[in-house]
Each structure stands twice: as structure tokens, then as C-alpha cells.
Amino acid sequence: MNIAITDPHYAVKIKAIQALYGVTDPELNINIVDLGLVYDIHINEELKKVSVEMTLSTKSCPLGGIITNHARVAIEDKLDDYDAEVQLVWEPKWNYDKISAEGRIALGL
Amino acid sequence: MKPPDEHISHISTVVPYYILAAVSFVIFQILLIISLPEIHLHYFQPKLLALTHLFVLGWGTMVIFGAVNQLVPVIAETKLYSQILPVINWILLTIGIPILIWSFWTFQFIWITYTGASLIIIAIILHAFNIYKSIFAGKSNIIADILLMAHAWLFITGSIGLLLLINLISPLFPEEHLHYLKIHAPIGMAGWFLQLIIGVSARLVPMFMLSRRENTKLLSTSFYTLNAGLALFLIEGMIFHSFHGRYIYLLLVIVGLAAYATYIRGCYKSALRKQKDAGMRQTFIAIGFILAALVLLIISIWVGTSVQPQITTLFGLTFFCGLVTIIIMGQTFKTLPFIVWMHITKPNALPELMPKDLFSEQWVNIQLWVYLPGLLLLLTGLAVKLTILLQAGAFLMLIAAIIYTVHVLYVTGKLKTKQL
Known about the structure:
The structure holds 2 protein chains of 2 kinds.
Chain A: H1 10-20, E1 38-44, E2 49-54, H2 64-78, E3 83-88, H3 101-106
Chain B: H1 15-35, H2 46-76, H3 85-106, H4 111-136, H5 142-169, H6 177-209, H7 216-240, H8 246-269, H9 278-303, H10 309-344, H11 361-384, H12 387-413
């Protein structure tokens, strides 16, 4: 996921991404950003809210609820003034091509 | 946002099954050592019958029930229909199985034997009902179909088993007892265990290895040919009391296994993660035992079990102690640490430990490298009728079973420390 430097919420989004790097997929043992699960981040400055759009490797992933909760907690820990909300989306469908170069190295691919 | 944690089955539907299965595994290995002097005899004798049923019910089926209670919600993308039924089933099995094993061991068939056997059948029916209701409420797919059919075969196997028990004291069947035993055992092995292994591994292997390609047409081919072979075998055996078409049925099963092997090969070839961890290594070794068991099965059909009953024992040990046990030993540590982790990790704090921290990869490797030589020694000892090899093999297998059980208790013991 790329964030343009011209994005008006660049600084907050970078902090949110940094927080999400700390959330690990329990099976693959790499963070959810490098795994390509995080699709988008929206900032509402008025409501002081960070909304994350992310997916799971499979709809029925039993760890899904835990991962999304950890994503929310990680952002709220990093951005004290903000509330976080994580929304699961299923389009586009996640596939292994979404794993970043760093993720592939971490997986030994 | 509603997190999909409804896919997590309650801990009591899974973990007690793993623990009781592990304990049964150790008891099985102890009783195997005690029974070694009689292992060369015909397979229809008290101790071998007791051992076989302790293995298939106390070890294999027990751990499969627990794993299926966790896996069905994942496979069918639904929740487990009832969280109470698995608890009831566990209690029924815990009472019923020891009674049945005692009856076989002592070869005494009294009222309590039939009570125990009935409790087991009730547990099988209730478990199958729970799985059927869960899958029908979820998403249909070939793996869910395989699981459904496997449970149907389990029910048929258990029912014939109960009738065979009654037949021992009050003849029910027109043909001799062994004729029906030759139906009861293969449909349990292929219909329940083999089919379950095909279904579950078809889901887990590509998931753990990050396979890009899953050819489900091959799985469908495997499903239809395997079940056609078994159904024809059952119909001829039960209605026409013969096995004239056995080579055709065997061929259908072989085609099914070949389709499954091709599916697994495709998953492996398209996998991003080809490096296998200890659990996956054991899974692939176990799958290799299918071929060994198949060769022994063909030999036993060819020479006739009346001439060489030891070949049937050799085939049974290869299938159960090779395929079933090794795959369970490997997959336990691919599933149980995650199940425990899901229940102890706090949703509102980042975890300090991950599932990989809840077990020892090294001990999973040690368990394999103690068990596998033990099994090979046991099989060789049986083939060449050398007692010292049998004893050495069975002793190593017992050590491996103890390592496995202590490891399972170590992982499940983490449930007491809800501080992640």
C-alpha cells in the first residue's frame, strides 16, 4: 500500500501504517502490511477517526476477528488522539501476489 | 465492523478431544508391547481386536472429531451448529470406548459391552448430525462434500460393528462372522480415515504451503471414484455375500488415490512456500505411507488372507500406525497451538507470544525421528518374524507417543495462562 507524499493526511497515515507493521499474522509470522492485507486508510480529522480497509486471506479465517482487533488496538496505541475502526472488505480478493518484496523475503520465498 | 470470530469453535469442543486422544495413543502403545507375543497370530483375536478399536476410536477418531469441530467452520464458512453436542459426545466416547476395549481384551460380551458400544454409536450419530447441520448451513464445496461422506461411512462402519458385536452372542448374519469383518474394516479405513485425510489435507496443504493452484476437479474425481468403489464393495458384500468384483472396486479406489496424489502434487508444485516445517514434513511422509499400504493391500488380496493372515496385520499397521498416526502427529502441531492461541490472546492488546511460541518445532522433529525408525523396525520384525525387532520398534514408538502426549499437554496447559 502506497501513500502519496501530497496526501493531506500523510503524517497520520504513515503513523497508522507504522502501527500496522506491528500486527503479525499468527500463521505466517509476518506483519499484515507486508502480507498485503491492508488495502486503504482514511482519516477523518473532524471526528479524529482512522478507518482501515483490510481483508483476510480467506473469508472464514478463524483468526480474522483477532487480527482486526489487534489492528485497531495498534493504531489507537500509536495515535493517542484518534479512534480506530477496521472494516473488512472482500474486493479485490486477496491473493499471494499482494505479498510485498519484504514479505516474500520474510517468508523465505 | 463485525469480526468473523463466529468461526472459532468453543475450546471445549476441541481441546478435550486432543487430550484424550493423546492419552489413548500412549495406552495403545503400551498395550501393543504387551500384545507382541500374539501379533503373529490371526488378526481375529481378542488383543488385536482391542488394540485396533483403541486405535481407531480412542486415538484416530477422537482427535479427528476435535479437529473437525474446529475445521468445519473454516471449510464451510459457517459456525458450528451446536457447541454443546461435542461436549456430550466426548463424555459418551470417554465412557463407551474403555468398556468396548475391555470387552475385546477379555473377550467377554455382556450387557455392559452393548451399553458401551451403543454410547459410541450415539456419539457418532450426534457428531455427524452436528457436522451435517453446520455444513448445510454454510458454503457448499467439494471438501465439505468429502467430510459429509466420510461421516456417512463412519456411521455405516459403526453400525456394522455393533451388529457384529451382537452377532458374537446371537447370530444375525447368514454368512460367517469374518465375512462381515472384511467389510467393516475396509469401509472404516477407506471411507472414514482415508477420506477424512484426503478432505482435510486438501484444505490444509495448500493453505500452509501457499499454493497458487488448487485443481478441485481432481478432488471431485477422487471423491466419486473412491466412494463408488466403496459403495459397490459394500453392496456386493452385504447383499450378495461375495467379493467377486473386488479388483474393480480396488481399481476405483486406486484411481481416486491417484487423482488425490495429482492434486497434492499440483499444490506442491505451485506452492510459494516449498520449505516444509516439521508438521508439513510429517504430513508428506504420512501421505507416502498410502502407497506402502496400497501395495500390501494388493498383495493380501492376491495371496488371500486365509493363507497369509500376517499380511493383513502388516497392512493394518502400515495404514494405521504409518498413515493415520504420522499425519495426526504432524498436523496436531499445525493446528493445536493456533487453537490455544485464539483462546488465550487478548483481543484488546497486542500479543507478546505467537502460536509458534506455544510449542517446540524441535520436539515435533524429535517425535518423528523416534517414531519413524520404531515403526519401520516393528513392520520389519513382523515381516521377518523377529521378536527383538518387534520389541525395539514398539519401545521406540512408545517413547514417541509419550513425547507427543507431554507436548500436547504442554501446549494445552497454556490455556491456564491467559496473559498474552
